[in-house]
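Journal club prep, notes for RB
We'll compare a predicted complex against what the paper describes. Inputs for the glutamic acid case:
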Amino acid sequence: MADASLNPYLRAQQSFKEAVEILGLETAVFDLLKQPMRFFEVAVPVVRDDGSLEVFTGYRSQHNDALGPTKGGLRFHPNVDADEVKALSMWMTVKCALLHLPYGGGKGGVRCDVDQLSEAELERLSREYIRAIALVIGPDKDIPAPDVSTNPQIMAWMVDEYSRIRGENTFGLITGKPVAIGGSRGRVEATGRGLVHATRQLALELGIEFAKSTVAVQGFGNVGSVAAQIASDLGARVVAVSDKDGGLYHPQGLNIAHVIEYQKAHRTLTGYPEADAISNSALLELAVDVLLPAALENQLTADNASRVQARIVGEGANGPTTPEADAILFEKGVMVVPDVLGNAGGVTVSYFEWVQNQSRFYWSEAEVSQRLEAYMAEAMSAMHEMHQRFGVTLRKAAYLVAVERVAQAMRVRGWLK
Ligand code: GLU
């Protein structure tokens, strides 16, 4: 029998199955959710700079559109395969339903190594991929966005290609675009900002004052650096941060604005003068109130979870906690804000971007952050309520909230009989 823990698709199916069972829903709900409603595998022919033709494999998975058009990112990575894309689209269904966005889950990608492509080849690949899936996507059908190794420039080429095919500007096709062509203010910072809001809301529900807490952040990319800055702006003491080379520690709190400047200038945190060095693994075990893993997957494992001293772990990265570590942390009473909420700020501001595109009325950054905060807080409360009702981890509670909402939509649409 296949080991479900090794295959993301089987793992996602298991999570949905468990949620359907805990909620006491009919098996038809699971039968409809256990695979994508639609799944496309496409050939993506690209003329290389030397004139030769290379055909890449691309995918788009539309998991479930009961709540609205499907939504989710596109990744360009050598590990992209059918099962990974299907699983990621199922996780998007959970994220969107949990955040109460009027979307179902989608995901796509192309199996390729962007480091082996020139800028011109990357543009041709992006445009060819959109040509391959143009018939099945659209602002009211399926709305892509950036994910691993894709960015606003790639979104711009894609929306341009689709607009040319349609013969009309269709900015609502894709989110995560540059602000110059309908991108939302605050989209780039959205994931880090959402992570802090979700974590602060949980602290509030637990009676921990976030403004007086100590914080350690693993990862200093787009998510970690923004989260560190916002946590510090909110009065928390950020005592440690790290990048892939190692970390910085200062018990009185780091000056995050200075650290960001240093990192911009040196492209690493290493050597920053006003802090002690700390390893990535030691950072995870610091005596802090809040730990934010915002780098890689599988950082908290059966090996180190028992040594985690934080009271709250906020997952900015995808899957930083293994299932074994999850169980250990639950036993210890450490609360984990699961990735499906912790990094849902991105798709939430994507939704805001799409709303702005569809209404042609653009918001200030302050409006975006204020609304993001409200969405994160509401999702956290719904999840926390499920956690208390069923005595399960917040991660399982997130699935319960999402599956209940999707099942309700499927029921009233008449899909369950
Ligand atoms: N790729 C991001 C995610 O996994 C963003 C998706 C989106 O903005 O649609 O949540």
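Talking point for the session: The first strand starts at residue 38 and ends at 47.
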